Amino acid sequence: MFIDSAAELAAFCGRAASSPMLALDTEFLRERTFRPQPCLLQVGTHDEQAAVDVIALTGEALAPLRDLLFDRARVKVLHACSQDLEIFQILFGDIPDPVFDTQVAAAFVGHRLQMGYGALVEAVCGVHLPKTESLTDWTRRPLDPEQVSYAEDDVRYLPAVYDGLVAELVRLDRLTWVLPEMEALVAKARCAADPEDAFRHVKRVGTLNGRQLAVCREVAAWRERKAAQRDVPRKWLLSDEVVIEVSKRMPRTQERLRRVRGTAQLKEKDGDAIVLAVRRGLSCPQDRCPRVVHRARPTQESESVVDLMNALVRLVAERESIAPQLLSGRDDLMAFLDDPASSRLGEGWRRDLMGDILSDLLAGRAGLTVKDGRVELL
Q: Ranges for the HRDC domain (predicted)?
């Protein structure tokens, strides 16, 4: 059903309150704004689904839905939830928990990492979902029945997928592995982004030195705050390419700033603000200039060791039916090689699954061989 009235929403939430889980998804638009613009919030139980119009319903009209979502006794089930959690933050000022992400859970039971929702539904439920409305402008009203049905499909099958994944996790005794990963997702989403750290996400920031990085920090922070204030995409003010060029040239006047291609659209007051940001970066004490940490290039010998460790990870992942990327990446293996106790592979379920066997491999107490065309542990 499509819900755009407070009375309909209250009635639906009253029925959904008896469900121990809620399947959730969102539709939004972010091409023309700094923050994503919420358009629909889809809610599903085992019995029914609804697409809630969060353009028509705002503020107190959403109170029954907020109460439903923020009841900690009820599991909130989503797929690839990071962007959805951002929408909840915008709509409600917080993120409901506990959260269960079916994409993460699927990787613990043998599916590939970052498996799409459609592929997972097909694998678990045997249903092929159409992609006919994937480029819909969800801000336009009215929505036709096909659009609403497409949106509701995103929660229609989630309860069955959730039930199947939980049953498999329990069978494999891995539910305790998954839950901390879910808690980490929510904790990360709750951390407010600091404009002073925005420079770290600028493309090619690794090409800058200390003083240039100080300028980049100030210019990127100005862009972050101004884009948020005007609610426009960052690139509408300055592209990453221009931020990097300004950081390298360090223009101290408007005239020199305008020599950088891509600054012609700037208003004069914005040009003044950027020049001031450059000057702040130039006046930053040397010991307070930021650094982009570059991991030392591994030696040929350590690269070979990591290749062997990675082969072991893939062997264990195949044996345990878990996505190998979930176990570790090359950086995790390098960190384990440097200091096992402080690495991600040295704690929690990863340590239980991989820590001892990796230590045996590095100590020469274990090895790998090929038998009948397959890698096996010695």
A: 209-288
